[in-house]
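Q: Structure tokens for this one, please.
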Amino acid sequence: MSTSRRRVSAVQIGLTGGIGSGKSTAARRFAELGALVIDADALAREVVEPGTEGLAAVVAEFGEQVLDGAGRLDRPELARVVFGDDAARGRLNAILHPRIRARAAELIAAAPPGTVVVQDVPLLVETGQSGAYDLVVVVEAAEDLRVQRLARDRGMPAEEARARMASQATDEQRRTVADVVLVNDGPSDDLRAKVDALWTERIAGRH
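A: Here is the predicted structure, written as tokens:
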């Protein structure tokens, strides 16, 4: 682990992995073990709730077409606008990411000293956040297996699954910043057991 990593009163773990890798299963297990899990996707929804500055900024950038009839963010429409358009996605990220980070910082500041905080960040590598954590944990699985899981669990067509994967960091890029890689090519119980072992061996004694 890099000695340059920021030290705070809470032990901070960055958890990431590509779509279909099983990252959410690992996050749930961390929560069961007592960690405060902060879900970046959940915060991304929170910061664009109706009436927020985040939603106003998204509408100002992309137009009212990204709102549904109730004045809420129409996520499928927004996804259609930015998917495959790197410039548009960059503008969206510039709106969302600072607000997500600020909200996460508020939650961490409210946690008792020594709390194990797991930040579930799908785009941890893509947004250059790896240095913000005491430990970076990457969950990975073979691409074909991820496609099968996405079809089974989300009804996602293989073509869409592979397109989503292609828009994210590669396994090699994630390994470059990882302190720990949890390979999730087996049953979910195997992944939970790996999280348990990591907790016992590298985390439990730090808080």
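A few notes: Residues 1-8 have pLDDT under 50 and may be disordered. The two ends are 17 Å apart (CA to CA).
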